[in-house]
Amino acid sequence: MTSSSRPTVLIVARLPQALLDLLQQNFTCHNLILDGLSEQQLAAIAPQVRAIAANGEAKVGREFMARFPALEIVSVFGVGYDGVDVPAARERGIQVTHTPDVLNDDVADLAIALMLAVARKVVRADHFARSGQWQNGPFPLTTKVSGARLGIVGLGRIGQAIAKRAAAFDMQIAYHNRSRKDVPYTYMEDIVSLAAAVDFLVMITPGGAGTRALVNAEVLEALGPQGYLINVARGSVVDETALITALQAGKIAGAGLDVFANEPHIPAELAALENVVLTPHMASGTLLTRTAMAELAFTNLQVHFDGKPVVTPVPE
Ligand code: NAP
Ligand code: 8YV
To answer: Using the 8-state DSSP alphabet, how is residue 7 labeled?
Structure first.
């Protein structure tokens, strides 16, 4: 393909170098963030843009897509695509693709890591050991994870990978989805009942309007002072203000959070708490997995421009 016949791709998110390299080698690329494109520059290239490369957090709304009359495809680097207005894309016949499955292991691993870290106070124990406090006496006792009761909200690809790991910890597993699944775990019709029945509540649903603030003050009250919340889904699925209030008041025991309402901002009140473990939206962040995600996000664009069906379209 000559450079003039190469499709034009607009990059709208911070993407890993591996993906940027693949895009630059194969397409004419413009990077909204790294190139610092002005409105005028964006308007000048808009008629040529045939693809948008985004990530799981990027906002690709109706009005934004409307600026690109030749847009054919939005390729998301990430499984979650709640920032993309999929109905608006469908109305115009624009394909939307994402990167499911290749990240299941890593996200499930981090959910388990957060559960262990917050219940066994791993981060505080590390500080205790490094700072010499051990010389004044032993570290306080912590909470056992093996054999505890686990509730998973969103028993999909990643939720099932979490359940598989939790089963190896002899955990008693229950879940809530909108629909019951053919799995050997206990189904709960609503989140409040699930929260009341477990020691650890793990959120792993998609984000967006359908799951906004699924975890509210009532759910946290039901989880109770011995219960832990783990969120590896999206910040939007938890009412962050209600969570901070519950953590401050000891209404729940603690939280392990990889995602936040207004990333990369974390409220100071949350960061000041001792009963939380916070990670910077890095659940899929291993070299192997991010490379696989990059290859899949690229392949979806490549096959589309070769006139073939995309590999991983978002579901109907
Ligand atoms: P998936 O296979 O589509 O599973 C999502 C599950 O959520 C489904 O089982 C679905 O079941 C359930 N669900 C959807 N809406 C619900 C609702 N309102 N109430 C209760 N359950 C609901 O997706 P996945 O591949 O496991 O990924 C899940 C999400 O994890 C992604 O969309 C993304 O937001 C997040 N994620 C985060 C990271 C990170 O870095 N922290 C990395 C990867 C993914 P029903 O349809 O039966 O309700
Ligand atoms: C990514 C994610 O870190 O897949 C998702 O939905 O949230 C994460 O895997 C993210 O999309 C890349 O920035």
So the answer is: P
d(C-alpha 257, C-alpha 127), whole Å? 19
Asked if 109 and 250 sit in the same domain, the reply is yes
How many angstroms separate the alpha carbon of residue 225 from the centre of ligand 2? Answer: 31
Per-residue pLDDT tens digits of the chain, which is 316 residues long: 555 589 999 999 999 999 999 999 999 999 999 998 899 999 999 999 999 999 988 999 999 999 999 999 999 999 999 999 999 999 999 999 999 999 999 999 999 999 999 999 999 999 999 999 999 999 999 999 999 999 999 999 999 999 999 999 999 999 999 999 999 999 999 999 999 999 999 999 999 999 999 999 999 999 999 999 999 999 999 999 999 999 999 999 999 999 999 999 999 999 999 999 999 999 999 999 999 999 999 999 999 999 999 999 999 8
CB-neighbour burial class of residue 138 (10 A; exposed 0-12, middle 13-18, buried 19+):
exposed
* Residue owning the nearest CA to atom 1 of ligand 2: 78
Whether 316 is in a domain gets the answer no
Residues 241 and 293 in one domain: no
Q: Which of ligand 2's atoms lies nearest the C-alpha of 56?
A: 11
Rounded to the nearest angstrom, the distance between the alpha carbon of 274 and the centre of ligand 2 is 27
User: Ligand 1: which of 55, 76, 77, 79 to mutate, judged by most atoms within 8 Å of the beta carbon?
Assistant: 79
Q: For the chain, how many structural domains are there in total? A: 2
The CATH number for 39's domain is 3.40.50.720
Do 76 and 111 sit in the same domain of this protein?
A: no
Half-sphere exposure of 265 (CA within 13 A, CB side): 6
283 within domain boundaries: no
Q: How far is the CA of 135 from the centre of ligand 2 (A)?
A: 42
**67 and 147 part of one domain:** no
* Residue positions annotated with a catalytic role: 234, 263, 281
Residue 80's Cβ-count burial label (10 Å; 0-12, 13-18, 19+) is buried
Q: Domain limits at 69?
A: 3-102+288-305
Are the C-beta atoms of residues 202 and 148 closer than 8 Å to each other? no
